[in-house]
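User: Could you walk me through two proteins back to back? I'd like the raw sequence and the structure tokens for each, with a short line separating them so I can tell where one ends and the next begins.

Assistant: Of course. Protein one, sequence then structure:
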Amino acid sequence: MVNSPLAVLLALFSTFGFGAAFMLTQFALQRMPPRLGAAFSVPTSTLLFWCLAPFSIDPAEADLSAAGLFAGIGLLFPAAVTLSNFESNRLMGPNIAGAVGGLAPVFAVLLAMTLLGEHLRLLQLFGIAAIVAGVVLMYRRQWQALTVRGLWLLALPLGSSAIRGFVQPVIKLGLERWHSPIAAVVIGYTVSSAVLILAALVPGHTLEQNFDRRSALWFAVVGLCNGSAVLSMYAALGRGPVTLVSPLVAAYPLVTLLLSFRFLETRARRSAAHSRHGRNRRWRRLIAHHITSNDAN
């Protein structure tokens, strides 16, 4: 079922969801580590998908081979991608991590051409080239000072983009057998939730010391943004080719950049202004106290 205009609309909605999630992750990471946060983020989306499943999934249309494919994907996506995104976001910031993670269409298109026999049009090729150029330009200052540690940090968003890129053609292959994006996210997210919860319960980490209620709520919001973005992306893949959907979804770093400028940088300016105002007020108090003491003497 091909519907390119609807696929474009769904892909753009997915773009906004991924971009917003990257920005909001900065608030969530302030008081809770990525691994514990992922155990709240992905299960929140999973719970929402299970609530939608009875109204959206027809068991008569179920395909076991497609279900197995969705479950296999769930071992890596969104589990491994979520952990990688949170960690790279914490270490590199949302703009750089999001930009490098936006290289997913390079991997997606290559596999789609091989696995699905799709063809890359000239406009789509220009779009992918623009994404790669944007990543290079955004990260240009860091290339000169890149160390061994820097290369390791860069591997996190690159690995995340590779997984997300390879997942897209495979999901489309599964949707050709069972055309149910909600079934794909229910199965994949259920497997990922189990993986992330087990990872959070690994002995040697004290959950009570790392848990923060406010951060848990932020991670839940991030999970809803990511979950709605993934569902929209799957729905777009079910209605359009990977070579069309993937480059559009990969534009989410622009959304992250705009939202970061609107919220994070504005908040930083306000904090700096408040800090300067507080210092000035303390100085005025000290000066007034000094004058009063001299007058008393």
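----
Protein two, same layout:
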Amino acid sequence: MKVFRLCSGVCAALAACLVTVAFAQAPAASTVAPEAKPAEVAPAGAKAVPALPAKSTAAPGWNVPPKWDDVQLKPQYASVPGRETNVLEQDSGQWWRTVRNGPVTFYGGVLLLVAPAFLLLFYFVKGPFKLHSPLTGKMMERFNSLERTAHWTMALSFVVLAVSGIMMLFGKYFLMPVLGASLFAALTTIGKNLHNFVGPLFMFSLVVSFVVFVKDNFMSGNDFAWLAKFGGLLSGNHMPAGRFNGGEKIWFWLAIVIFGIVISASGLIMLFPNWNQTRELMAEANLFHAVAGVCFMAATLAHIYIGTIGTEGAYQGMREGFVDEAWAKEHHSLWYDEVKSGKRAAPSGAQPATGDD
């Protein structure tokens, strides 16, 4: 009996020890507050995290930009005022690049190659338009000094713009492989600056040319008859024409007026980006400028051909202002009759006597 009591006491003591150890290893009761973590200390001299402005999509904190998909094409907050300053990526830029380096460059290049090739072929097949009657030695004033100054200002500035424009639009395809990237870049930079500064002079000459020549470029019934027979180009017999024939009047309204307006308006949009226009508008203006410029150049090649080697005596009239009466009577018979009869004054204002030979 004593032995049984001794064993029971030993078992009770062991159980008490086990319970004590279990409670000692158990987590603290919920009533005991957990030990506070030390607060994060900002680096010395660091500024406090700024408060986000209204409608901002950025996450609070430092250097936590929003996701790219959320800001790629959507207007966001921008502290700089102005149109499109809150647009990170302008998606029409790739469209402009595709169109400019695709159809505009390809078909524009084809046109600028086909036009001179056709004129050269025509010259070898048909030759220049020669006078059918001998020169008389008597001269008639065709263009006064103002008209010639406006024309040559427009012509010379156009040459500068055409050469620099071709260099910028097509140069990387045929010039850069020959000259190398460095020299091509230097020449293109010079051409671009010339283009920017000569452009306004060309626009001014267009306005002056319109004012001084428009009165003689309205279409009439004789002009439609002239156009119907291509001015006698195929038959060899010149059709009656006024001071300017139907072809020259088409050139005036198509090139100087229509192409001139498109080129000038689109050029001004690109030349002065501080007018608060959008980048998409400037990209579209660039395409219109290129297309109109290429068409203007192709039409000008035909105009230059007719006014120089294509027509005997034509260049003399614009260079010196006077043409032989035989030339005037053959190419512009209606104008010749008006001047000789006294119904029309000479371009400088002089009025010939009626029946003056």
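Residues 90 and 168 are 23 Å apart (CA to CA).

Let me know if you want the two compared in more detail.
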